[in-house]
Amino acid sequence: MEQQLTMTMKRLLIFLPLLIALPASAQRVREHLKPERHAHPGGARGSAPANDDCANAQALTVTADCSAPVSGTNADATQDGPQPGCDEAGTFIDVWYVFNPGNTDTVSVLLIPADANAQDWNLGVYTACDGNETACLINPATQVNVPVIPNANNWIRVWSNTNFGPGGDFTLCVSGQVSTPAPANDLCANAVVQTVAVGGSATFTGNCTGATDSEGLGFPSVWEAFTLGTCADVKISFCGTAPKILDFWLLLYTACPGGSAFYPGSYDSTACADGNFTLCFANLAPGTYYYPIAATFNNPAAYTMHVSATVCGTNEAPNDECAGAIPITAHTACTPEFFTNTCATQSTPAVNCGGFMGNANDDVWYSFVATAADMTVGGAPHGNMDIVMELFSGTCGALTSIACGDVGGPGIADDLVATGLTVGNTYYFRVYDFRAQYAYGDPGYDLCVVEGQGSGMGVTTIGPQRDGIVIYPNPGNGNFTMEVDPSASEVAITMCDAAGRVVLHTDARPMHGRLELHTTGKLLPGMYNVRITGGGQEYHSRVVIQD
Description:
By secondary structure, this protein is an all-beta fold. The protein is built from 1 helix and 40 strands.
């Protein structure tokens, strides 16, 4: 799939195993695979750290190196300061530090979170508690040089935006300016291009020490490049890199720093015996491609990267097309079987299911023989896949779409219910992720086919047509009315964006089965997944906020 580079500024890193960060224009976008965390406002002021307010900033000493950093925490902090210039709107739980740099106008700051997979960590430098912001950094991945006012106090603010993750423990140090030379391929234009022939491969070795964010991606990175002489399916892997790489970029670029960018159809961490990841790109046109390698706390400095190419359309998914559909035996009760769609490609465009149409660039095929007039296919992702299922009658090459299942959101089990089937006939169905890129954990999900309506797989999902739960107006301006079961005394509402990130969570008490949800001014226009829980049941829907 092709995307314009302008859509992919920051946060196209994958953080394994717990979270994914996806592209956004000049903003952070982060997704948590498991466990899901809800935004929280921070602790009560009674338990806040001593340096919770700028007026009580903790004094730091500028050292020669970072061999003895200061330990800190903002886990129970409150907000004391305006919205940082580089961050999105949210609640900023922050703590403060103050230092005098002496005669220098630049110092190096190293902020290391205790758990980069769970916390949100950011820092800013200020000329005073209510002064100018001279530096602003989102999730700094390495030691960074920042400008300061010589021979004067400067303030550091360490904050977490609770819309993107909780606060927590960290270490912080301020030292002399770091002057480690950047590697030659720190600049995309300096990447050494290797030719990869169909049926062949190329190996790249390098070191990220001293890397900078030379192309404005949001993280320090170095670059490798390869050229294809003909259309090819391409794999990029880091087999043999030790310790294994945990943070990696998704996009493959056609030029530096502009041009187009391509998402992988999928990735997995099983193809490499050592657990390193492999990215699969299908149907790449002839040309030169550039790939960034991230320099972060979680990655080793030295790396080995392999690029291999095969003829277009020769991916590894045996059931990538209808002709290779895997048969599943129907049962009276759900008997889950595990499947994967690694390196799959699109067979036909996505189905419009319930008014929503995703992207089927990773669809794979299955079949079953109907044993009853009413049958259900149950699907349950192992990771954060937003599973979509579409059922067909007929034969491969002459199929008719007759049903689909796409009620749940990321990581949610779903049912495809079909009625009026002919007993003894073979039916085909395909499975894919609703989103454009399947990069949300190793592709994997359970499937089962059962007689009757409802598989019982995963949570109980209540549809609006069956139980009268409705959300309106949809699309809307962000203020929605929800009608729920009148007997429900309290419900929990969680909203996730299209990437699966929790952007709003609230508990509400319906009045006579009705409640209002106001998000105007809080959420940007776009599509959101809504989960409503209460009375031992869950309901999932999608809503659209318009401009």
